[in-house]
Amino acid sequence: MRNRIYSVLEYCIKFFALIPLTLITFWTVRYANRVSLDDYETSIITSNGLKFYMVFVISVIAMFFLYRLLKGIPEKWLFIGFTLCYMIAGIFLLTHIQMIMRADAEICYSSAAAFEVGDYQKLQFGEYFYMCPHQLGLTSYHRFLRLFSRKEEWVYFVNLLWIIVVNLCLWQASVLVYQEKTMVRKLIIFFSFAFLPHFFYFFYSYGQVPGIGCLAVAFYFTVRAFYKNCKISMGISMLFMMFACLIRNNYLIGAIALMIIYILKALKENPAKRLLCVALLLAVVTLPGGILKKYYENAGDTELNKGIPFSMYVAMGIQENPEGWRAPGWFNGFNHETYLALGCDVEASGEAAVQSIQERVDTFMKNPGYGVEFFKEKLITTWCEPTFMSIWSGPIISAGCETDMGLLQSLYVGGTAYEWLALGMNVVNAILFGFSLLFILAMIVKKKEFTILELFGVLFFMGGFLFHLIWETSSQYVYPYVVFLIPVAAGGIHFVYEKIGKGK
């Protein structure tokens, strides 16, 4: 009976995953969003032209030649080779670009330096951490890094290491899961490095990279705990899941995905043990944030309130952008401005958010056509920016960053180098989304169950899609969901290759 329930629930996951994947695959093939490389973040949606379709078709064909080429390369050397390329490229960029931190990333890093000398001004009423106490985890991470070096370049170099750790964890998890499918493992290695937005994010110091690094480590040790029945691995998984959520609380979506997996597995085996894991995971991702907040209250001899209510981010996520620069549902200042205007009153701010949400829902109900267009534009600008704003998040020239190389200037001002990168990444994204969609369809038709690697990737992606459907959005927020979708896409490529009679 419990196996039957598991099968039904997993089928529902597969079926509902088809909806966002179909939409995003179609839109990625049809459109491309360009975000201006400046503080305005203006989105321009364009239709893909003949160049994209030619490169896309050539890439799909070439991919199958690549499949045959990968057969002759040991996966260990494949990973080492790509890692060396990343390290060389990363160090080259670090030595040829003068990066300047900006916005929230700069506030969190400079606050870490201030806290070291007992300056807790940013904790006071109306200041940054009074509004956003959830960012104290990121600042604490920066304080830890500063124990080893106080140069900003150190943060970026550690980011580069985290990116390689993510790819290593995906590969090693696949070694445990796909013991007989060497080619799937090699495809995971290839696409984890070919997904270049992940690489270019090493210049982003806002917590996205160390967060996904901790999530990847947590997931790898979860897989290891399942396959090796290792309690120590489960403990390490819990620890790094806690770090991921402290550094960036968006990774709670990853924790929820793991909880769902534990619940599903409880239907098949060791129900008491799996449900205990759910309870422990829930505790480690929710309780430490309060403890950290209390620590800073004591250190700064102040009292922090709950900060900007989360409902304000939902309200902002379904609003138009009054200035007309950013796309619908992107940051427009509503949360900060309203919270400060109401004297940092959490209850009053929450009521203002609920009122705004109700007004917007009424507008959508009265004009459903407008509602459809609103969310369509929001989703396209979020998911169809080929670089996922990895270039925007880096050393853009408009922010005062400097480089002595023409190629890098072209990349970071939106010139020819940027356009070719965007074209290439648009093709890679279309391949990843398209083959993920094909893989899920194949699993439904063949009535096969997901592995834990595929199940987590799909659940994490679905969670991210639903979250940013209603929450404040940005293309830079969603790239982690694509990273964990890579094993699903690799499965799809392997399946298609088998169907044409060339795979094993």
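(the above was protein one; protein two follows)
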Amino acid sequence: MSQIGKPIDSPQVVSVKMIPLDFSKTDLPSHIVSEIEGVVNNELDNIRDVTRLILEGKVTLY
């Protein structure tokens, strides 16, 4: 969730929902947490590309 007047690629909060294949494990291994953080950071780094595609009409929103 970003804040008005702040860069869209620097949100205050990021929420990730992961559905594990093995429900018996409650804690995520650190390498999985790092991988998730990497994916989130990569997507945030590319958010301006998504904005550009929307403005160019190359993405259908509805």
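Reviewer note on protein two: The helical segments are 30-45, 47-55.
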